[in-house]
Design brief:
It is built from eight helices and four strands; from the N terminus they run αβαβαβαβαααα. With 263 residues, it is α/β, with parallel strands linked by helices. A four-stranded parallel β-sheet has the order 2-1-3-4, with helices on both faces. Helix 4 links the parallel strand 3 and strand 4. Helix 2 crosses helix 6, helix 3 runs parallel beside helix 4 and helix 6 packs across helix 8. The protein is globular and about 55 Å long. The two termini are 24 Å apart.
Length: 263
């Protein structure tokens, strides 16, 4: 690149620097989180904190290798399953669709880069992001992929209680990233982890979709689906390393797909 970037955060560049530093093959990394209940022990912005940290580490590791740039975090997304709880903020389906489509439009207009890696910190966004990825490619000519780091964390996990929301994984990650935000004393309030088979049937069955909520007592305890008591900062750091390593392969493939599309 002709000029050294003062930062790999798009928002910290000046307008002239965007034209000098970014190119069509640059990768824009977009963290999407959520503002929602995460039990009595984790903050509402857990998913936003995690998504932003994933992207920060991915860009730090692969920024020079794959010319990655960090977009500002979208903190509010689709969290209807948590709207029973005070503090949860959720867009509607129409609002989420309009937001992502407008973002795609303005990226295509305002930035030279045509590669977009969305890093999703909230499992409830998966369905709509899968649909919108098609729009972003077809309507705005963006070479796009969506990363779901939570799935990488589940791969190879021992059989037993599924860890879906506010449990071992998210608690461990927050203990590693922002321990000051974890209410450790409140973890003791979690007494009854939900039945694993019931969770799998209600939340994880790929053949049937149920409109579950995180206050359903048959799948959650105080809004938590998992066992937060098993969390640790050490485990959280291992999960972070795993996410960054896996992301590198996805970014490489994203650039390869751009190259093949050009013919």
């Amino acid at each position: 690149m002709p000029t050294k970037a003062p930062s790999r955060m798009i928002a910290e560049l000046s307008s002239p620097e965007v034209g000098k530093l970014l190119r069509e093959s640059s990768i824009l990394c977009l963290p999407i989180g959520s503002i929602e209940q995460h039990g009595p022990h984790l903050p509402l912005n857990t998913d936003a904190v995690l998504a932003e940290e994933y992207v920060r580490r991915i860009v730090a590791r692969f920024g020079e290798t794959y010319d990655c740039w960090q977009l500002p975090t979208l903190a509010v997304s689709l969290a209807r399953e948590h709207e029973w709880a005070p503090g949860t903020l959720s867009l509607s389906l129409a609002g989420m669709s309009a937001l992502l489509r407008d973002l795609g439009r303005t990226i295509a207009r305002g930035l030279p880069a045509r590669n977009l890696a969305i890093v999703n910190g909230h499992g409830g966004n998966r369905g709509i992001l899968e649909a919108l990825a098609q729009d972003l490619r077809a309507d705005f000519a963006l070479n796009v992929c969506v990363l779901h780091p939570a799935v990488w964390m589940d791969a190879g996990a021992p059989a037993g209680l599924p860890d879906i929301h506010g449990g071992k994984n998210e608690t461990s990650l927050m203990l590693a990233i922002a321990p000051q935000l974890v209410r450790r004393d409140a973890i003791a309030q979690l007494k009854n982890p939900p039945d694993g088979d019931r969770v799998r049937r209600t939340v994880l069955d790929l053949a049937v979709t149920w409109p579950w909520r995180s206050d359903d007592s048959d799948v959650a305890d105080l809004g938590v689906i998992g066992d937060a008591r098993a969390g640790s900062a050490e485990f959280g750091n291992r999960l972070l390393e795993q996410v960054v390593e896996k992301a590198g392969g996805v970014l490489k493939e994203l650039l390869e797909r751009q190259r093949l599309a050009r013919g």
